Amino acid sequence: MPEVLRGKGVISGIAIGKILLVGQNIDGYLADYKPESKDAELAKVEKALQAVTEILQKNVKTLQERDMPEQAAIMEAHRMMAQDPMMEDSMKSKVEEFGSAPRAVLAAAEESAAMFERMDDAYFRERAVDIRDVCKRIAKYILGVKEPELGAAAVILCGNEIEPSVIANIPTEKIAGVILGQGSTTCHAVIIAKARAIATVVGLGERVDIIKDGDSVLLDGETGEIIISPTEDMITSYKEKMQKQSEIKAYYAKLAPLPAETTDGVRVELMANIGTHMDVESALAYGCEGVGLFRSEFVFMGRQNIPTEEDQFKTYKEAVEKCNGNLCVIRTMDIGGDKPLAYLEIPKEENPFLGWRAIRISLQRRDLFMPQLKAILRAGVYGKAAIMLPMVINVAEIKQVKELIEQAKIELAHEEKAFSNNVQLGIMVETPAAAVMAPMLAKHVDFFSIGTNDLVQYTLAVDRVNHNVSYLYNHFNPAVLNLIQTTIKAARDNGIWAGMCGEMASDPYAAVILMAMGINELSMSAPSIPKVKDKIRSVTFTKAKATLDAIMKMEDGDAIKEYLYKSL
Amino acid sequence: MEQKVIISNKAGIHARPASMLVQAATKFKSKIKLTAKGKTVDAKSILMIMSMGLVNGTEVVISAEGDDADKAVTTLKDLVNSKFGEE
Lengths: 568, 87
Hints:
heterodimer; A: Glucose Oxidase, domain 1; Enzyme I, Chain A, domain 2; TIM Barrel; 3 domains; eight-stranded mixed beta sheet; 23 helices; about 50% helix; globular; B: alpha+beta; 4 strands; about 25% strand
């Protein structure tokens, strides 16, 4: 019998495939687990240790082959933990105590992890994470929870939360769809899925547990519908829907080589937001003219220590090269207390969005920032690269970065490594402070890129994931529009270019207005490019300008939105 | 057979050096132990080694019992002195 669940569709597209559970929550499995005799449970521990050791050995080998020595070393340490004599003894004695193999494994992990957490040195305290990680793998093996192993067919990834590194490490063609229990549309897993146009449904809550590994599922990323074990009829009707979608896709594909130009000849550059260097190729297929935002966070996430200059260089170089002479804007690390990283040691903060994050961390942690700056400068040799700083609020921050860039160049020259002197330096305008001060900031940088997700949040003091206030979140709010206009004007007055890399840029109505304000570039998740381009190619600049004049006189954001939908 | 050695790499015995020690130790048949800060642990257990929190400058006694004890102690000592290829 087919079972229908409904979540929130966030990335449109239809996917049909088998479920691969990649969730981190094993409580359900633990509750269902029926232990056998003590001897049988002991044997299960031994078998699981051996099996996980073998899996880890394979992981190490693949990572070495892919030239990722640091990650290979970490997996090697994990393998040793799985083979550790102390761990095995501890697990076995816990079987005596609990009678259940998976519980014994997890209890032994907790005990060792707690021992590490009591240690003085921060590095060792953080190893608790590794121990829990390895033991969870062992417990999962006993419980029969599959590792995300990929076969030939593309799968639908499903879990309450999916670690961004899990999605980032799976090639796009192997993922047909994504289902998440949690409801955020801005979590990194969703952002990556968006960059790769993978049909995604979120917000199932606890109902996500109904979906089991290997289930056949039909997923509609537009309506949020998920059908478990669909009938033939259902599959047929959805295939028809897929057909229609592919017709739209074909129309959009024809747009790809055409410029984003109004009927009276005003052009805007459309660029892509990407999460990993692997996303560039699919972005080019949508007709992007370069990369307006390369989120370097993924280089920093899903690993145990600071990425080296060499690791970063390889990634950036590949992205820059793939841009084929078009600009590739690399944003420096934009991480804060909301997604703490083991090696960053960010203390618990009351208010991470107003705390120690992004450029504020980079300026204090030179060990983190210098390798990144050097890696980008080196990548610049292979095409057109730019450095973009997140969360800037004043001129002093830009000046400090400029000094560090000079220092990085001196170091690179000493190390006899090739670097580019033509790497542009720009800032994200995503704080009200930066927007207000844009006329002064413009004198110190080569470009502005307006980050609307944060600019709207900070300007309106609205957390958009808070259901009680999210109705206030609107990028057409006059306060936001005024700040954007100030920023674009400041850029033009000072002869630098202005772009946008927030979600607003992917709203076709907003794109027309921004173009009328004089924006040079719009950067968005690649699948949004065709619909924005289609809109721009359907209007005249004169009309856009008149519409802008009209809305700038209006008092209410919702009224502006309505007016735009009617008149454009 | 035992010998003293001082941890001289800057980062101390974190996961990578610890795994190198275990890799080296498991090649020998002898029972090998590390003693530091009043604690003695099995050199074939990465968790025990890491749990000692061996930072730069810590003095460690490497001891071994068995047929290949001499070679085991020398090998591990050389490894520590090589700073595990780090700074």
